[in-house]
Amino acid sequence: MIEVKAVEKKFGRKKILKGVSFTANKGEITCLIGINGVGKTTILNAIMALTPINKGQILIDGKRLDKTTFEKITFIPDVITMLPQMTIAEAMEFMNDFYTCWNQERATELLEFFRLNLSDRIASLSKGNTAKVNLLLGLALDVDYVLMDEPFSGIDMFSREEIANVFTSHLIENRGVIITTHEVGDIEHLIDKVVLLDDGIVTKEFSAEEARENEGKSVIDVMREVYKR
Amino acid sequence: MNVNFNNRDPVYLQIVRYFKEKIAIGELEPGEEIPSRRELANRMKINPNTAQRAYKEMEEQGLIYTERNHPSKITTDTKTLGKVREELIIEAVDMFVTSIRSINVPVEELLDLVRVKYTANDDKEA
C-alpha cells in the first residue's frame, strides 16, 4: 500500500499541496483527478522522492522511502526520459543495466503488444509511439507499484485504447497503480478508486464501483458534484 | 463478447446481466465453460477485480460453479436456468409498464399495439 499522509509542498511562497492524504492499494488502480496545476504530478514526484516535501509522510508498504524502494516502484512520467538518439533496443538495454528488476520477457511481450520496432530511434517516433515506449520501459520492471502521469494526454483514440487495454491485462494485474488523467472516460470502467484533488487538498476519495452501486452515479457525475461545474 | 457499458450501473452487475442474457437465449449452455476471470477482464476491457466480483456474484446466485483447478462452468441446474429467463422477462416488462403507465393508455389498446409492433419486428428480421 502507498500511504500519502498530510503532505504539504510549497514552491517559493506558493503552497501547492496543503495536506494531501490518500492511500493506494496493491492490486488496485487508483486515479488522481484534478484540474491542471492542482499538484497531481507534484504528488507523484513526491512519492518518488524527486521533490522534497515540506511536511507530511509517504510510506510504501509501511516503510519510508529509501534507495531500495526504487526496485519496488516505478514512475512513468508524461515525457520519455531516454536520450532521443537511442533506439528502442538501446533504451531497453539501458534499463536492464540500471535495474535488477528488469524483466526482459515482459519487455518483449510489451514490444509485441504495442507493435513497436526495436531498431526505431526514440527521436523518430510519433507521440503515441513515444508514449508506448515510455510505458513499455516502466511496465517491464518487476515492481509492485506503477505511477503513471497522464499516459493518455495528446494521444489518438486508437492508441489510447491500446494503452487502456494494458490495464485489463496481466501486465498490470496484482500491481498497485496510481494514474493521473484528464480523460476519465477512457478508463472509467477500469479504475477501482478515484481521488479528487482541488486547491491542494483531497476533496473526495471513493470507489468507482461503489458510487455506481450505492448512488447510481458515474465517476463523472461525482466529479461534477464535487467541482460544482 | 462486446458490451456497451453504461456509466451509472455497477460494472459487475452489467456483466452478470450480460451472462444472464446469454443464458436466457441459449447462447451459453448448461455446463458450458466460461472464460477465466483474467480473460474476461481482457475481452470486456474491464478491471480484473471487477471480473472477479462479477464471477463471485454469479457463483452466489448459483449461475456458475467452479470445481477446483478447472475453469468455471454454467450451472446445469435447470431450475436456476429457468428462473434467469423469467427474471429477465419480468424485469423488461416492469420497465415497459412503468414508462407506459404515465401515458395512461387503455390496456386493450396497448396490448394490440404491442402485438403489432412486436411481430412486425419479427417479420423484418426473418
Radius of gyration of chain A: 17 Å
CATH architecture identity of chain A: 3-Layer(aba) Sandwich
Structural class based on helices, strands and sheet pairing of chain A: alpha/beta
Structural class of chain B: mainly alpha
Oligomer: heterodimer
- Encode the helix/strand succession of chain B as letters: HHHEEHH
Largest sheet of chain A: 6 strands, mixed
- Separate helix tally of chain A: 8
CATH topology of chain A: Rossmann fold
CATH C-level of chain B: Mainly Alpha
What's the CATH class of chain A, please?
Alpha Beta
Which residue ranges of chain B are poorly predicted, with pLDDT under 50 across at least 5 consecutive positions? Answer: none
- Helix content estimate of chain B: 55-70%
Question: Topology of this protein?
Answer:
The complex is a heterodimer of chains A (229) and B (126).
Chain A: E1 2-11, E2 14-24, E3 29-33, H1 40-47, E4 55-60, E5 63-64, E6 73-76, H2 88-98, H3 104-113, H4 127-139, E7 145-149, H5 157-167, E8 176-180, H6 184-187, E9 193-198, E10 201-207, H7 208-215, H8 219-227
Parallel strand pairs in A: 3-8, 3-9, 6-7, 7-8
Antiparallel strand pairs in A: 1-2, 1-4, 4-5, 9-10
Chain B: H1 11-24, H2 37-44, H3 48-60, E1 64-65, E2 73-74, H4 78-101, H5 107-125
Antiparallel strand pairs in B: 1-2
